[in-house]
Design goal:
Chain B: Pfam families: ABC2_membrane_2. Chain B: This is Integral membrane protein. Chain B: One of its GO terms (cellular component) is plasma membrane. The structure holds two protein chains of two kinds. By secondary structure, chain A is an alpha/beta fold. Chain A contains ten helices and 14 strands. Chain A has a six-stranded mixed sheet with strand order 6-7-8-3-9-10, sandwiched between helices. Chain A has a four-stranded antiparallel sheet with strand order 2-1-4-5, covered by helices on one side. Chain B is built from eleven helices and no strands. The chains are: A alpha/beta, B mainly alpha.
Chain lengths: ~300, ~260
């Protein structure tokens, strides 16, 4: 049972605050670190991996500070986002080298097990420079798993992978989590996290926006006020009919855009009610468009929720 | 070199060895990276150029001891050795830091000092192989080791290789522009300033190495601006200080900030 604790951690680069007073605990099982690009996910993972010192606060592995603590790598396996490896080596040579660097008693056997785990035996004697993105990712995984770490940190592991490779990696990570390892992966794609992690940590603009069971956070996301732009054959009549319904919180008649700006509080109720009321009143709908569906706006809502 | 038993970890596979000063895997990765890249061509070109020059000098003119001294000091020691040092020293670590592959070394239970010391040994070995050995050959071609000049400059190139490898390895850790900075240092400071500006000569690796060469050579053709003691002490001091500082900087190397 290995736990990473992040306590009141901030990290700034010059005047830019990348991570702002974040506190979270990553325990056994699969945890998704979710947030838009530039939210501070990589900075957090780099601090957990001991590649970056927090400007403030502490990052510990079972109570031991990770920064400048080489012994922590006996427990941690890292799959970095960057592509570069020792491309002139074959995957087998690369993983064996990693096993040797960990000081394992039988590097060749450990490497063989790790390569089998990621199903890379068929290409293990080819140079890494000839690999596709997905194959490189698996070689990186094998190098991270070779010493059977209790913590696995993966920075955007699904980037550039095809669907089959993605499913395979998800299966592998699920298995690792089920075995009791602490697996943390970062992603900016909601669906990826949804498929893999029950527990998620959400970061937005360097701040810890949400934490906990994915379904609860997903519900929070779904139940947030949604904004729509609607254009119809009779905006005023549609507005008066909508405002009478509980799913609608506010309506603005935007004369310049010739549209209604609607804020709905009950996503399911509103999407069901709008077409029905339009049909009942003989109003034709020309445009029904969500105006705040970007991931950033969803995450931003979580910060204030 | 010290080998100690590692403290028991909690992972399923326990390591058999812990901290040590030299790591063979780090060495293997380093020399394969050094000799496998295109920049390694330069490692072969510079000694080849020296051998072509000395062959031409030998074939076209009467090569006496004085000529041998001029060529070995003017090209081998003042240009070839520092340039090979730049390629080997910066190349031993700079590209790995630039492309991020160093993460696979740093994310291991290995002391940063071990990584630096191992890379230094590889850089020294490569610099010596591509500078001291060609210097010996060149010396024998020029005057058949008259006045022990070939051996003297070979020893000089060897001790200079140690200091250059340490200096340029440090540059590789300190800056992403290590090759440019190293070339400026090698060509401007060691090649020009260290040769013509009297005060600067005492702060030149070349002069320190010459002091050692002077001791080895017979006769008085080989001369240095610094005494043997000063030369040896400064060579050792620079090597130790650069290696220590490189280890210290690697320990604080931050591999982040890309977001």
């Amino acid at each position: 049972m290995t736990t990473i604790s992040i306590d009141n951690v901030s990290r700034w680069f010059g005047n830019v605050v990348a991570v702002n007073d974040v506190t979270m605990t990553i325990g056994p099982g699969v945890t998704g670190l979710l947030g838009p690009n530039g939210a501070g996910k990589s900075t957090l993972i780099n601090m957990m991996a001991g590649f970056l010192a927090p400007s403030n606060g502490s990052v510990t592995l079972d109570g031991a500070v990770i920064w400048r603590n080489e012994q922590a790598y006996r427990e941690i396996g890292i799959v970095p986002e960057r592509e570069s490896m020792y491309d002139f080596l074959t995957a087998r040579e690369f993983v064996v080298a990693n096993a040797e660097l960990h000081g394992l008693p039988d590097p060749a056997a450990a490497a063989q097990r790790a390569l089998a785990t990621v199903e890379m035996e068929y290409a293990q004697d080819r140079r890494i420079e000839t690999y596709s993105k997905g194959m490189r990712q698996r070689a990186k995984m094998a190098s991270a798993l070779v010493h059977e770490p209790s913590v696995l940190l993966l920075d955007e592991p699904f980037n550039g992978m095809d669907p089959r490779q993605r499913l395979h990696l998800m299966d592998l990570l699920r298995r690792m989590g089920a075995e009791g390892r602490t697996v943390l992966f970062s992603s900016h794609i909601l669906e990826e996290v949804e498929q893999l992690a029950h527990h998620i940590e959400v970061v937005v603009a360097g701040r810890h926006a949400a934490s906990g069971d994915f379904r609860k956070i997903r519900r929070l996301m779904t139940d947030r006020p949604h904004r729509y732009i609607v254009r119809s054959s009779d905006d005023r009549q549609l507005a008066s009919a909508l405002i009478a319904h509980a799913s609608t919180a506010a309506i603005e008649l935007d004369l310049r855009e010739d549209a209604l700006r609607i804020q709905a509080v009950d996503f399911a109720g509103f999407t069901e009610f709008l077409p029905r009321i339009a049909r009942d009143h003989g109003i034709r709908l020309f445009t029904v468009s969500p105006s705040d569906e970007s991931l950033e706006s969803v995450f931003s809502y979580l910060v204030t929720a | 070199m010290s080998v100690t038993t590692a403290p028991a970890g909690r992972g399923a596979l326990q390591p058999v060895a812990g901290p040590r000063l030299y790591h063979p895997t780090v060495a293997r990765l380093t020399y394969r990276a050094l000799l496998g890249r295109r920049r390694a061509l330069l490692l072969f070109l510079l000694p080849l150029l020296l051998l072509v020059i000395v062959s031409a000098v030998r074939g076209l003119a009467h090569a006496d001891d004085s000529t041998a001294n001029d060529v070995l000091q003017g090209f081998a020691l003042s240009a070839m050795v520092p340039l090979v040092g730049v390629i080997a020293g910066t190349g031993a670590i700079g590209p790995e830091i630039d492309d991020g592959a160093i993460v696979y070394l740093l994310a291991k239970p290995i002391r940063r000092g071990t990584i630096i010391f191992t890379k230094l040994l590889v850089a020294i070995g490569v610099t010596m192989a591509f500078s001291a050995i060609p210097t010996l050959l060149a010396g024998y071609i020029l005057n058949g080791n008259g006045q022990n000049i070939a051996v003297a400059f070979t020893v000089g190139a060897a001790v200079a290789s140690v200091a250059y490898a340490a200096i340029f390895l440090l540059l590789g850790v300190l800056t992403r522009h290590a090759v440019v900075v190293g070339l400026v240092y090698a060509l401007v400071w060691e090649g020009v300033v260290g040769n013509v500006v009297p005060g600067a000569r005492t702060l030149s690796v070349q002069q320190w190495a010459l002091a050692v060469a002077q001791k080895v050579a017979h006769g008085d053709l080989v001369s240095s601006d610094v005494s043997l003691t000063t030369g040896v002490v400064l060579l050792a001091a620079v090597t130790v200080a650069a290696t220590w500082f490189a280890g210290r900087r690697l320990r604080s190397l931050k591999l982040a900030g890309e977001e």
